[in-house]
Amino acid sequence: MQRQTSLAKSQDIKRAWYVVDAKDQPLGRLASQVAILLMGKHKPTYTPNTDCGDNVIVINAKHVALSGDKIHNKKYYNVSGFAGGLRTRTAGEMLEHYPEEMMQRAVWGMIPKGPLGRQMIKKLFVYPEDKHDHEAQKPVKYELKYGGKR
Question: Which of 1-10, 80-89, 118-127 has the least mean pLDDT?
Fold first, then answer.
């Protein structure tokens, strides 16, 4: 007797809302946990070719931790496509002025690229402080699964 593996269908997926507090959490470890939630890998019904993940709200992105001297040495690059159009920012500048983009870039690096990944990243909502606009969805606080700083 062969067992049949069940595959999740997009109309059968139930999406939950989670709130993740980024205060004093290492950026990379936090981003990997958020990516797992967005992809749906924490569910027993995970299917690689279907977006079966949940919605994630990240608060306190401005207070995320970086180890070592990354705040001064890590660089973020943007290129406009024109000659001399390279713009370089340090992690410290990104944390001070663009904490939402810094978190989104870290998570984007950990989810699949292509149409499915673009669909998954749309379920990520990042806020620099602890206020967010999604109280109506009744999000559940998500406890991170690693031994990071608390």
Answer: 1-10
Count of C-beta atoms within a 10 Å radius of residue 128: 20
71 CB burial (10 A radius; 0-12, 13-18, 19+):
middle
Report the C-alpha gap between 5 and 16 in whole angstroms.
24
Q: How far apart are CA 12 and CA 104, in angstroms?
A: 27
Copy the structure tokens of residue 51: 């977006």
Quickly list H helices, the chain.
27-39, 70-73, 91-97, 99-108, 115-121
Could you tell me the pTM of the whole model?
Answer: 0.91
Q: Which residues of 138-147 are buried (b: 16+ CB within 10 A; e: fewer)?
A: ebeebebeee
- 45-81 pLDDT, tens per residue? 999 999 999 999 999 999 999 999 999 999 999 999 9
- Per-residue pLDDT tens for 103-114? 999 999 999 999
Question: How many residues can be counted in the chain?
Answer: 150
Report the C-alpha gap between 129 and 126 in whole angstroms: 9
